[in-house]
Design goal:
Blueprint: H1 3-14, H2 16-27, E1 35-47, E2 55-67, E3 70-75, E4 78-82, E5 92-102, H3 111-114, E6 122-134, E7 142-152, E8 160-173, E9 176-187, H4 189-196, H5 200-206, E10 216-229, E11 234-245, H6 247-251, H7 253-256, E12 262-273
Antiparallel strand pairs: 1-2, 1-12, 2-3, 3-4, 4-5, 5-6, 6-7, 7-8, 8-9, 9-10, 10-11, 11-12
């Protein structure tokens, strides 16, 4: 795989959560019935790998097809579907299955990390749930809490991630939607050992110290997004996200010696809403 191919793949994986923020900001701007959807295309600046201090440009794409409250949504390398009918509970609830492709790690800029054995890509499966209420402080706003669980499957399964956190969005005026998202991610032993652990062979290959990474909270994140409706169907959307690796992930020589625990992503995209 070439360096350019890796950047595209890694960028797509890192932008999964980001795209959700961009798309949600637009989708929450108004409620529609019947068939609706959107398509988002854009570009971003992302870390070379999880824990890197090198950055590269990367494209991203997302799309959604909905009928009333039911939908199928693609967010980069992730696919999710809401199967929860509306009006069942006194608050909003979306839930359903999630499927994702986790890209591996190879051909990176840092020589020591590049010398580590390649990590193959794998498929992860699980589910998500989002609870939300509207008109909390303003008629246009929405306060939500999202949780998603994804576990690697098959012979190359690489562990489990549980991502959760609150979000708040509102419209200061009709054409603009602003959103704020905070998140935390728990990674189990297998995930952290796969991406942040260094066994004796990898230590010899790379010159990095051997390291045993155990499970725990892996990262904390905060993002701000804005979507501006230029016409009835076209919008421009942007996002800035900062993620701080913590715990055993941050202490890994892959991050502490060869990279950075602070990860940033900025993105800009064009949205077609239908």
């Amino acid at each position: 795989m070439t360096s350019t191919q890796f950047v595209i793949r890694a960028g797509t994986a890192l932008l999964v959560g980001l795209i959700g923020c961009l798309a949600t900001a637009l989708a929450q701007a108004e409620d529609k019935k019947g068939f609706t959807g959107y398509l988002t295309l854009g570009g971003a600046i992302v870390p070379d790998y999880e824990g890197s201090d090198d950055y590269q440009p990367a494209p991203f794409a997302a799309g959604k097809l909905a009928y009333d409250e039911y939908y199928i949504e693609a967010r980069g390398s992730k696919l999710r579907a809401n199967v929860m009918p509306a009006g069942v509970l006194p608050f909003g609830l979306e839930l359903g299955p999630s499927l994702a492709y986790r890209f591996g790690r190879d051909d990176v800029k840092n020589d020591a990390v590049d010398a580590l054995r390649d990590i193959e890509g794998t498929v992860a499966m699980g589910g998500f749930a989002k609870m939300y209420v509207k008109a909390v402080l303003d008629e246009s706003d929405q306060l939500g809490f999202d949780v998603e669980i994804l576990s690697g499957v098959g012979s190359d399964r690489d562990g489990t991630l549980i991502t959760f956190g609150p979000s708040y969005s509102f419209s200061p005026w009709d054409s603009l939607r602003l959103g704020f998202n905070a998140s935390a991610t728990y990674a189990n032993d297998r995930y952290n050992e796969t991406y942040f652990g260094i066994d004796a062979n990898n230590a010899l290959r790379s010159g990095l110290a051997a390291y045993d990474a155990e499970g725990g909270i892996k990262d904390l994140g905060l993002s701000v997004n804005a979507t501006y409706m230029m016409t009835e169907h076209w919008a421009i959307t942007g996002n800035a996200k900062v993620m701080q690796l913590v715990g055993d992930a941050a202490d890994s020589p892959i991050v502490d010696d060869a990279g950075s625990a602070t990860q940033g992503v900025v993105a800009l995209g064009l949205v077609f809403n239908f």
